Amino acid sequence: MLLFGGGGHCKSCIEAIESYEKYEISGIVLSKPNSSGAVFNYQILGTDDELVRLKKISKFALVTVGQIKSAVLRRKLYQKLKNSGFVLPFIVAKTAYISPRAGIASGSIFLHGSVVNSAAAVGANCIINTRAVVEHDAVVSDHCHISTGAILNGGVYVGSGSFIGSGSIIREGVKIGVGSFIGAGQVITKDLPDGAFYTQGGSFER
């Protein structure tokens, strides 16, 4: 498997993949040339402008660029890889729990201690980060990042391209609009519109 992105999130992905024991990591691919050489002894193999050559190394790929302020880069890279014929499987860390009754789409990663419960659904190219919880019947749409320790209670809906910050709690049945940003430690008890920006300093629409 090729990993596209070599920053901090990539390091977490590497440990999850190693624990998953289904794929071996072929190397790291960056957006720009870099002479640093390796991430955790996995070699830098080139840039994402070399997809034809890289696909000969492996047809399997994962987007390992992080996502906080915007999903644009992860979404663009995911689509570029899909259009180039790469296979983007989901990755489940050994200590994560995914209910057999949950729906999981391609290219998403479930890091250590995360939980996706019965009848929940997680879309494509999502990050379900360390110890995050997606409860029963909740829906996480494509290209979302549910950050460390965040809790989505039963029936929550998160619109595509959204970020839910560390330790935030979303009350059962609440709908979060497309492209929203929820800062760390927030408690959301009502629906939020598309493009909502909700932090400790207050909320507004972007």
Report on this model:
It is built from three helices and 24 strands. The relative contact order is 0.11. The radius of gyration is 17 Å and the shape is globular. It is of the alpha/beta class. Strand 23 (196-199) and strand 24 form a beta hairpin.
Blueprint (SSEs and pairs):
Elements: E1 2-4, H1 8-20, E2 27-30, E3 38-39, E4 42-47, H2 51-55, E5 61-63, H3 72-83, E6 91-92, E7 97-98, E8 103-104, E9 109-110, E10 115-116, E11 121-122, E12 127-128, E13 133-134, E14 139-140, E15 145-146, E16 151-152, E17 157-158, E18 163-164, E19 169-170, E20 175-176, E21 181-182, E22 187-188, E23 196-199, E24 202-205
Parallel strand pairs: 1-2, 1-5, 2-4, 6-9, 7-10, 8-11, 9-12, 10-13, 11-14, 12-15, 13-16, 14-17, 15-18, 16-19, 17-20, 18-21, 19-22, 21-23
Antiparallel strand pairs: 3-4, 23-24
